[in-house]
Amino acid sequence: MPTWPEISRSIYGTWRLAHADTGGMNYFDLSFGGFWRSFGAAVVALPLYVYFVAVTFDGTDVSLTVFIIVKALTYTVGWIALPVVMIGLAPLLGLSSRYIDFIIVTNWGSVLRSALFLPINTLAGFGNASTGFGATLYLATMAAALAYQWFITRTSLQTNTITATGLVVVDLLLGLLVVILFGRLL
């Protein structure tokens, strides 16, 4: 688990990257140890996910226990899907030397992206996410999250626009696949 100074530096780095400041990369521990500790970001972001799960459970289709187990599996697999897929993609794209940097920054960036979805998750909890305002807020939030992921992908991998865009699409599709597959259990 990362220490508090590493957590705060990494989150500050993600904040700088969110402002299109490539200097944000200087705030991450881009070592092999930093790679493994970056998965501690899943623990940092967990309260935001628990909030999302709590506001979306309506109790009509499945028991609370089944719902929590499925959501826990979704969360866990969601955190490891991209790193595993990138093990195969990075060498094919000539990006192996930046794999660790990419995973570290993506993991820590997930904390910021999770916080970004807090307003729309709150609307969903009140049943207002399907309103015109809710839909607009969701689209704007998704666009901001994808743009941010594109920037950190391009910056951390030091790659071109097309490759960064393709990897963001891969990440998005992986996320959807995980949600759909585990959603079928409900």
Q: Short summary of the structure?
A:
The chain is mostly helical and 186 residues long.
The fraction of residues in strands falls at under 5%
Rounded radius of gyration (Å) = 17 Å
Give the helix/strand class. mainly alpha
Instruction: Please report the number of helical segments.
Output: 8
Unreliable residue stretches:
none
Describe this structure in words.
Helix 6 (118-125) packs antiparallel against helix 7. The chain has helices at 4-18, 32-37, 41-56, 64-92, 99-116, 118-125, 132-157, 161-183. 25% of the residues are buried. It has one domain (4-15, 30-183). The chain has 186 residues and is mainly α.
Notable traits:
186 residues; mainly alpha; 8 helices
Q: What layout of secondary structure does this protein have?
A:
Blueprint: H1 4-18, H2 32-37, H3 41-56, H4 64-92, H5 99-116, H6 118-125, H7 132-157, H8 161-183
Helix pairs in contact: 1-5, 3-5, 3-6, 4-8, 5-7, 6-7, 7-8
